[in-house]
């Protein structure tokens, strides 16, 4: 099965500049491994820890749904699903109030 | 250098003053590769915090889908500091993921919600390195080139 993955600018160094790539997997976790197989280095930009979890400031959407609400890396995928990866736009002074 | 029109400049400052003491945030989108900040898009600070901002996840996706559909990119990404100077914090630098964008910071620490001048500064943040740049405010952006 083929799933289209939209890659953000900051990660296109791993995809030879491609804005979207095709990957496969029955879960988001498996899809990340499939991405890593073809684009080495991309996995550690997306996930961290043991057990592996999505990085706090990386947003992933499957068919427009934020996977944080659909089971994270366990989120099930089907042929034709659209996956979008977007880094959070975040920051702030961090000053103590 | 960042060249920005007066109306957009004023809109960013007005947003920062309105949301003070919470940090305000948003984007000015423009055609890909044009370096023209044309479309002002204030965003919701999902963190609702005086010391942190994060674009709401659903709004973030909607914003990027709109930009992709229109061949746009975030030319400016702005946010306010409400207690400190308009300089990128360690958090800002660590989370800066758009190397092509002008990161605009405004500080409302002097006057809060009230009238009065606001620090407005712009930076490039690439691979953890911050470079401040000049800001030029114009009445209107020059006409788009045709090539």
Report on the architecture of this protein.
The complex is a heterodimer of chains A (97) and B (147). Helices cover 15% and strands 28% of the residues of chain A. Chain A has helices spanning 28-38, 43-46; strands at residues 3-6, 20-23, 47-48, 53-54, 58-62, 65-66, 82-87, 90-91. The model of chain A has no long low-confidence stretch (mean pLDDT 95). Chain A has a single domain, classed as Beta-grasp domain (Ubiquitin-like (UB roll), Roll). Chain A is an alpha+beta fold. Chain A is globular and about 50 Å long. A five-stranded mixed sheet of chain A has the order 2-1-7-5-6, with helices on one face. By secondary structure, chain B is an alpha/beta fold. Chain B has a single domain, classed as Cytidine Deaminase, domain 2 (3-Layer(aba) Sandwich), CATH 3.40.140. In chain B, 22% of the residues lie in helices and 35% in strands. In chain B, strands 3-2-5-6-7-8 form a six-stranded mixed sheet. In chain B, strands 1-9 form a two-stranded parallel sheet. Chain B is globular. The two termini of chain B are 22 Å apart. The chains are: A alpha+beta (97), B alpha/beta (147).
């Amino acid at each position: 099965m083929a799933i289209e993955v939209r890659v953000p600018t900051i990660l296109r160094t791993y995809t030879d500049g491609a804005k979207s790539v095709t990957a496969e997997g029955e879960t988001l976790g498996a899809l990340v491994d499939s991405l890593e197989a073809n684009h080495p280095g991309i996995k550690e930009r997306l996930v961290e820890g043991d057990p592996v979890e999505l990085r706090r400031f990386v947003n992933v959407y499957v068919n427009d749904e934020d996977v944080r609400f659909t089971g994270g890396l366990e989120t099930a995928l089907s042929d034709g699903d659209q996956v979008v990866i977007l880094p959070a736009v975040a920051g702030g002074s961090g000053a103590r109030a | 250098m960042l060249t920005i029109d007066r109306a957009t400049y004023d809109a960013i400052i007005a947003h920062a003053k309105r949301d003070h003491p919470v940090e305000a945030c948003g984007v000015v989108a423009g055609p890909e590769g044009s370096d023209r900040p044309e479309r002002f898009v204030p965003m919701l600070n999902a963190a609702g915090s005086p010391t942190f901002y994060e674009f709401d996840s659903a709004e973030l996706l909607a914003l990027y889908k709109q930009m992709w559909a229109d061949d746009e990119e975030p030319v400016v990404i702005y946010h306010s500091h409400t207690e400190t100077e308009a300089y990128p914090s360690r958090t800002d630098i660590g989370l800066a993921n758009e190397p092509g964008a002008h990161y605009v910071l405004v500080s409302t620490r002097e006057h809060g919600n009230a009238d009065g001048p606001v620090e407005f500064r712009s930076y490039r943040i690439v691979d953890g390195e911050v470079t401040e740049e000049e800001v030029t405010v114009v009445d209107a952006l020059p006409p788009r080139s045709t090539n």
